[in-house]
Amino acid sequence: MALYDIRVIGDPVLKKRARAVEEVDSALVRLARGMVETMYGASGIGLAAPQVGVGKRLFVWDVGAGPRIIVNPEIVESDGEWTFEEGCLSIPGLAWDVVRPKQVHVVGRDLDGNEMSIEADELEARLFQHELDHLDGTLLIEHLDDDTRKAALRALRQSGVGPPLAPPAPSTDGGLRLP
What we know:
- It is a single chain.
- The strands form three sheets. Strands 1-2-3-6-7 form a five-stranded antiparallel sheet. A two-stranded antiparallel sheet has the order 4-5. Strands 8-9 form a two-stranded antiparallel sheet.
- By secondary structure, the chain is α+β, with helices and mostly antiparallel strands.
- It has one domain: Peptide deformylase (Peptide Deformylase, Alpha-Beta Complex), CATH 3.90.45.10.
- It has three helices and nine strands.
């Protein structure tokens, strides 16, 4: 099975809303299987299609019960609140305490077209919310307060990962000013 490159922060595909899957065909099944292998290869517990450069609404996950795949997922209900340290394969090497709902109800379809309805709690609920964020073009870093986000972006740039610094903006007095 092919392993995919995982896209990292700064890649435009991570900021776009993924399109609904209209048809499950052999190419989509191969993509999903490759995503599972890529997730395992990166020691992750979840991976959304945009993270491998594909703008389709599907993700894979495994929180210990074996690999699972969901197509066109949606959260239809959420409840509670839970703070937990959360990382992301697209923001390597960093993690933060993030508050999210503790329980979610997710619906979607499997690769055979069968309806899926999953009641999830704590880690699995967090995973679903995180992967759905990816499908909506939202990165984990967007859940951070301004100061923490700036520090994270600075750390990513220093490590050679992530978006480059913006070019200096011209000042009104003819010199250059840092953004």
